[in-house]
Write a structure and sequence with these properties.
The protein contains eleven helices and eleven strands. By secondary structure, it is an alpha+beta fold. The strands form two sheets. Strands 1, 5, 6, 7, 8, 9, 10 and 11 form an eight-stranded mixed beta sheet that branches. A three-stranded antiparallel beta sheet has the order 2-4-3. Strand 7 and strand 8 form a beta hairpin. Bound molecules: phenylalanine. Phenylalanine binds next to strand 10 and strand 11.
């Protein structure tokens, strides 16, 4: 029986010494498998007499059982150790602060649009939109801007190559495509597509061939249009005064309406707000000076007619305002060109966070 005992102790120490699951598997296959040592010992039982075979058989079975149990135990211990090692090496420290995180900023133009929409929204205006590429009927013709008007000159207007097939019967002008020079074509689009009463604002991109500290070839305007049965100049003045005071957050902001001319409004006015330029710094509010801020007027009956609205029954007012301009004034941005230079340092300085949502409740 010494060989059983020696095999037992040898195998048990082999199992105990197995460094990993592969080594254990080699022991299991090599010693317990078909060609293994224990199997060979079992086969040797056949040549023994009954008593010896029983005694040696029991000893062999007990030994085999012991080795199997040791193998299983070692296997479990190795698996635990492997898991511990993985847990130790792949630890995620959930207490680590997040990496320096780049948060996005709202561009001042988007913020200005949101503010304007919030204020006019409260007055019952809906937002209308139109395309940047217009035909010259919507941009000029329907708005009573005659072919010889300086605004149509190549210098101011970006004309696109190609012409639109003449759709409007009797229309004399050649219809060219332009990058809209103002948001006023949205007036036309709105009037031809929906019956009055109308109360809309139309913020959006506009284009003129111009470039200096206060002009950029692409800039933004917001248009306003109100059409109803008995709208008059008093409504226009009240509406715009209210807007300007809310926008600049100055309850008694002086507002002045100065006679002017636009082909599409009659009468027309330019609106100025009070300011002071003492000491070379511009301050909005009470002061000795005025600052021009927007153009407006009563919609010219010719425009209503061009858009299929009966001027005997309907009147209205319209206005148009530069968004960069009012954004620069409110937020102290000195150069208009910087709006479109995509300089992240500028955006971090002048931009707004997602929480600065303008609303009648939180303010604008
Ligand atoms: N469209 C004019 C401009 O761009 C502004 C304006 C709009 C004036 C509506 C009167 C009425 O200068």
């Amino acid at each position: 029986m010494d060989d059983v005992e020696s095999t037992r102790s040898e195998l048990l120490s082999q199992v105990a010494a197995a460094a990993d699951l592969d080594a254990l598997e080699r022991i299991r296959v090599g010693e317990l498998g078909k060609k293994g040592r224990i199997t060979a010992l079992m086969k040797g039982l056949a040549g023994l007499d009954a008593d010896a075979r029983r005694a040696r058989g029991q000893a062999l079975n007990a030994m085999k059982e012991e080795v199997v149990v040791a193998l299983e135990a070692r296997k479990a211990a190795l698996a635990d150790a492997a898991l511990d090692a993985r847990l130790a090496s792949e630890t995620i420290d959930v207490t680590l602060p997040s990496r320096p995180e780049r948060r996005g900023r709202i561009h001042p133009i988007s913020q200005t649009i949101d503010e304007v929409v919030a204020i006019f929204g409260e007055m019952g205006f809906a937002v209308a939109e139109g395309p940047d590429i217009e035909d010259d009927w919507n941009n000029f013709g329907a708005l009573n801007i005659p072919p010889e008007h300086p605004a149509r000159q190549e210098m101011d207007t970006f004309y696109l190559p190609g012409y639109l097939p003449g759709e409007r019967a009797g229309e004399q002008e050649v219809r060219r495509m332009v990058l809209r020079t103002h948001t006023s074509p949205v007036q036309v689009r709105t009037m031809v597509s929906q019956p009055p009463p109308i109360r809309i604002i139309a913020p959006g991109r506009t284009y003129r061939c111009d470039y200096d500290a206060t002009h950029s070839p692409m800039f933004h305007q917001v248009e306003g249009l109100v059409i109803d049965r008995d709208v008059h100049m008093g409504h226009l003045k009240g509406c715009l005064t209210e807007f300007l005071r809310a926008y600049f957050r100055i309850d008694d902001l002086p507002v002045r309406f100065r006679p002017s001319y636009f082909p599409f409004t009659e009468p027309s006015a330019e609106v100025d707000i009070g300011c002071s330029r003492e000491g070379g710094t511009l301050r909005i509010g009470h002061g000795a000076d005025w600052l021009e801020i927007l153009g407006c007027g009563m919609v010219n009956p010719l425009v209503l007619q061009n858009c299929g609205i009966d001027p005997e029954q309907w009147q209205g007012f319209a206005f148009g305002m530069g968004l960069e301009r009012i954004g620069m004034l409110k937020y102290g941005i000195p150069d208009l060109r910087t709006f479109f230079e995509s300089d992240l340092r500028w955006l971090r300085h002048y931009g707004f966070t997602a929480l600065d949502v303008p609303s009648p409740v939180t303010g604008v």
